[in-house]
Amino acid sequence: MKSTPVFMSYTRGDLLNLLVLMVLGFVLIPFVVPTDYWYSSILIPWLCLSLAAIGQQIVMGYAGQLALGAAGFMAAGAFALFNLELRLPFLGFPVNLVLSGLVAAAFGVLFGLPSLRVRGIYLMVATLASQFFIIWMIDKFGWFKNYDTSGIITAQDIVIFGREFTAPLEMYLVVLVVVTILTILAINMTRGSTGRNWMAVRDMDIAAESMGISLLKTKLQAFAISAFFCGVAGALFAFTYLKSMEPVAFDIKLSFRILFMVILGGLGTISGAFIGAAFILLFPVVLNTLGNEIFHGMVDATIISSIELVVFGVLIILFMIYEPLGMAKLWENIKARINSRRGAETSMKQNRKAD
Amino acid sequence: MPDTRSFMIGAPILEVSNVSLSFGGVRAITDTSFKVLQHEIKAIIGPNGAGKSSLLNCINGIYRPQEGSIWFKGKSLQKITPNAIAREGISRTFQNLALFRRMSVLDNILVGRKLHMNAHFLAVAFQMPSAREEERLNVERCEEIIEFLEITDIRDTPVGKLPYGLQKKVELGRALATEAEVLLLDEPMAGMNVEEKREMCRFILKVNEELGTTIVLIEHDMGVVMDISDNVVVLDYGKVIGDGPPDDIRNNQKVIDAYLGVAHD
Amino acid sequence: MTEFLFFIEVVVAGLLAGTMYSLVALGFVLIYKASSTFNFAQGAMVFFAVLSFVGFMEWGLPFVVAFLVTIALMALVGLATERLVLKPLRNQSEDTLLMATIGLGFVLEGLAQAAWGVEVRRLDLGIGDFPIQWIIDSTGLFISALDLTAGLVAATLIIALALLFKYTRMGLGLRAVADDPGAASSIGIPLGSIMLMVWTAAGIVALVAGMMWGARAGVQFALVDLALKALPVLIIGGFSSIPGAIIGGLIIGATEKVLEVYIGPFFGGAIEGWAPYVLAIFFLLWRPEGLFGEKIIRRV
């Protein structure tokens, strides 16, 4: 039995989880993590990619549309923010960040159109068009890069209400605030009627339509919101992690990585986006460290990155075979097993008492 | 049928006229016409492959008949999509179960409330009071349906994990939640035992009696059909071979030859 | 007149390049027919095959031996895929299978790199990438020898495979399997040997495509992205049609070259990267089942 909500649609457990995570992210981490390395190489990219993974999750995990072009929408968001900050600086960073998400959302709607006719692999190929087209467009039209020919364009500093956020810890906090807000909005949508419509389309589109759901509206809405999340994620990724504007950073490999995050993390869960992003991001780091520690640099870095590919691939196959709902589901199952064991133990104790 | 029903059978509400449908040259329905009266329970019967489900799929807009027309409350249902037809007030269940397998029972039934929930996605995202109120009211309404169908104990179970009979019930619940004027039920009792069938009949009669919902139902169990329907239309090889009250159908020679004469479970 | 000649040149170069897409697409179609699986890893197999081939050559194996060993290796990879990946997923949804083959693609890319390294290899087939004199003399067309060889090899291979599948017992067996695997095996069609044959054929087309591309631009990871262009080819041709794969490849090859040469310059070039995909979208809107695919009727 689900427990009843105590505040808005949140149960006591939800609020507790949220509180713990907020304290951890906003208070504990800033106090105990002193090195910039952790902020700029682990926490910031993790949060940014988690946000993009939420976007992928919305369109694929919730609305069931097999799209492969998250990095294209991230690029759209990143370059939108760059140009907005360049040309309309008076709007301020927060407004421009939202606007850059909206630019990506517009692309999302445009390239979501084929979803009205096709599904599965067909849709995947159609969405690949967005990936290649957006990157090409940014690359070929000088305006997007402000006619910079040096090849390295630095992202502007983040200034909010006159205060600069340039130190790693400061940027981490900016990213954390944005990601927290958007995650809560995503949870609200997925738990409410919006998300129900998406999932209905995912699970059985004909039945959904027969209940009065417009496939056109629902699919395009999912594409738009998904691209919005990716756009904001891409903007933050460029401004706080890459700190420069380069289209190649958003190539198809990144789209695949984000796809893997949601597949491994768990399709159709928000937490899966975070788990998957953490895994995809941290696993190579762990592998590298292990390589250095155990083999003292004897193993070639390229071998390690090849092993990384193999491991990701094998994991995806294994998950598809044994647990298509990914790590989030795995974790849930483990929790359920522990709980039932605990339940069995307590009931045994009670039985003993009764005896 | 008791004559003291709260909603007296009225004028035709749904008219199928001269509908023909074929798939790649194979005829599924041939020049079929019949009328459904307001507040009645109308059964469509016929041997397997008689085109019954295809007919429901035409009414509901999933298939487009090549010829003929379908009218609902004086409005043509040609060229509009299933979701527009749902908006007009027609809801349905499916022969081979079309539930949202990964969603809970409550969520499945809540999807049936779609046309009563219009909150903008931003209102949902920001949990605006209007969206929360809408959600609360509709959850309440669905809880009533869940209670009515006596499935409270499985409220939060993903429907994919439920046995067939319960899934059939959930699907009926989802259709009921729409509060549509016309319900199309495609074999709601298939694969059920006598007990379950009796229960399902009770629900259908109750809905028809209490809400005045017009019901079009496909069913194989002749006993059930004769018991609960006001009128029966018989299809054979995509053609109408009989249309009238159960007693007339029982005595219709064509029907006896084509259908009742054949040994049937 | 020279204008026209130039146009012909562009189209011919496009068609010749298109045969390579046809070849890769053919690999997809074969597996799709035999296993009803969209094998996303086919692109990775191109890379895996040619990198292994170059690796065997570096070991000192003669050309022909290296070629045969690679084919055997590909057949092995195919059977392992069938057994370890596709079989356990038999009753899963198409999307699940697709994602598993995406995973498989990564496994193959990783294995190839781990075994043979990541540096770009040169592959010299003894055919230069320069225009053929006698064609220039007789028609005035500038056609690269490598393009022509690649096109001819691909065309020969495609025709041979098409004939093989049309007229041999094995081919008939494959068609039965594609229609209904259960029924096919129940009437005694040897599923195992058909699978072996199909995967071997898919391995051959992957290796040949990889060799031709590798001879031009070096054997490198970018081949995987190039092979992705077989996807729009399949959408245009239909997933289960061998003629579809051929025509689709030619259409994509010719169109992308023509667009690149005549329209590209207005947009700063390199529209080849996305033009095939956009073309595929238009085809999807017009004929979602592809030129030669069967019309999809969704029954409820």
- Shape estimate of chain C: globular
Decide which structural class fits the backbone of chain A.
mainly alpha
Give the tally of structural domains of chain C.
1
**Biggest sheet character of chain C:** none
Strand percentage of chain A, roughly?
under 5%
What's the mean pLDDT score of chain A? 90
Number of separate strands of chain C = 0
- Backbone CA Rg of chain A: 22 Å
List the total number of helices of chain C: 13
Q: Which structural class best describes the helix and strand composition of chain C?
A: mainly alpha
Give a count of the beta strands of chain A, DSSP E runs of length 2 or more. Answer: 6
Taken in chain order, the helices and strands of chain C follow as HHHHHHHHHHHHH
- Tell me which oligomeric state these chains represent: heterotrimer
User: How are the strands ordered across the major sheet of chain A?
Assistant: 1-2
Task: Indicate the mean pLDDT of chain C.
Answer: 86
The residue fraction in helices of chain A comes out at over 70%
End-to-end separation of chain C in angstroms reads 58 Å
Unreliably modeled segments of chain A? none
Secondary-structure element pattern of chain A, one letter each: EEHHHHHEEEHHHHEHHHH
Shape of chain A: globular
Proportion of helical residues of chain C: over 70%
